[in-house]
Design goal:
Strand 7 and strand 8 (185-189) form a beta hairpin. The chain has one domain. By secondary structure, the chain is mainly beta. The chain has one helix spanning 2-24; strands at residues 89-91, 97-104, 114-121, 135-136, 144-150, 158-164, 171-177, 185-189, 198-205, 211-217, 223-230, 236-238, 243-246, 253-257, 264-268. 8% of the residues lie in helices and 31% in strands. It has 1 helix and 15 strands, in the order αβββββββββββββββ. Strands 9, 10, 11, 12 and 13 form a 5-stranded antiparallel β-sheet that branches. The protein has a 4-stranded antiparallel β-sheet with strand order 1-2-3-4, with no helix packed on it. The radius of gyration is 25 Å and the shape is globular.
Length: 283
């Protein structure tokens, strides 16, 4: 009988310890394997905030918004990314603000005139070189889906990555500002495959002014890499062909540069369902 009571007591103690440990640790997030979500599907656990609603208080892990909001440009695009977008704003080592965005001219987003625009402020946003419109930095139709970086110079010039053109003329481009803060880049086409262009570029510049571009083949089925540099005139220079990285099936990728070397790191979302029965954007 004593042995039975001792065993029961030990069992109760172990069960209590496990229960206490479970209360201290949050539950693992469990998702249903094989679920697919497409554009237009209902958003789960969403919360709508209408214009007449009160602004919710900042969450504990977020800083409150301080200062004034400043208009730096306009666009019909309420989204600026399709998953591939990189950095779009910098405060450089001279204290100036440099930024870019994708601007459409009307609400027909699939066909409207579109451009990558740039603006510059050297007084903490009190005034802008191009007021609230910005200046186009692309030089062909339908410039869009861009990101930017800065050169590692005393006066850091903006380096732009974007695609532009239509149909068979759609290419990725890299442009470096001609003069610090002016928004007049020299645009150079990035490498492409003979049979297909590579678009949605995201780029960085490493400390010794090496250019690293990560972008996706137009059929969204081959993540690709293009290394480059600047020539003596400060213009971007690349090889003839992109380097194949991995099949991706979608545009959720990022590239980052090392702060101490010319290396770059890449990360992307891998489709876990395979590619055989999926069309573009279904990964």
């Amino acid at each position: 009988m004593k042995r039975l009571l001792s065993l029961l007591l030990i069992l109760v103690m172990v069960t209590s310890a496990i229960a206490m440990n479970d209360r201290q640790n949050p539950e693992f997030v469990k998702t249903k394997a094989g679920s697919q979500y497409y554009p237009g599907d209902p958003i789960q656990n969403y919360r709508s905030v209408m214009p007449n609603n009160e602004i919710p208080e900042p969450r504990p892990h977020r800083d409150p918004i301080e200062g004034d909001r400043i208009i730096v440009g306009d666009t019909w695009y309420d989204y600026q990314t399709n998953g591939s977008i990189g950095k779009m704003i910098f405060k450089d080592n001279l204290g100036a603000i440099q930024l870019m965005w994708m601007a459409g001219e009307n609400n027909d987003l699939s066909t409207c005139p579109r451009s990558i625009r740039y603006n510059f402020s050297d007084d903490d946003g009190e005034s802008w070189t191009y007021e609230d419109e910005g200046v186009p930095v692309c030089d062909r139709p339908r410039g869009g889906y861009g990101s930017m970086w800065l050169t590692n110079e005393e006066d850091p010039r903006a380096v732009f990555f974007f695609h532009q053109g239509r149909d068979e003329t759609l290419f990725s481009f890299c442009g470096v500002d001609f003069i610090y803060g002016i928004g007049a880049p020299i645009n150079v086409a990035a490498p492409r495959y003979p049979e297909q262009s590579v678009i949605w570029p995201q780029g960085v510049v490493s400390p010794e002014n090496r250019i690293h571009i990560l972008y996706n083949r137009r059929d969204t089925d081959m993540l690709s890499y293009a290394p480059g540099t600047f020539d003596r005139n400060g213009e971007p220079v690349f090889g003839d062909n992109p380097i194949e990285i991995e099949r991706a099936g979608q545009n959720s990728f990022r590239i980052a540069q090392s702060p101490i070397s010319e290396r770059a790191a890449m990360i992307w979302t891998q489709n876990r369902l395979g590619f055989e029965d999926l069309g573009p954007w279904e990964g």
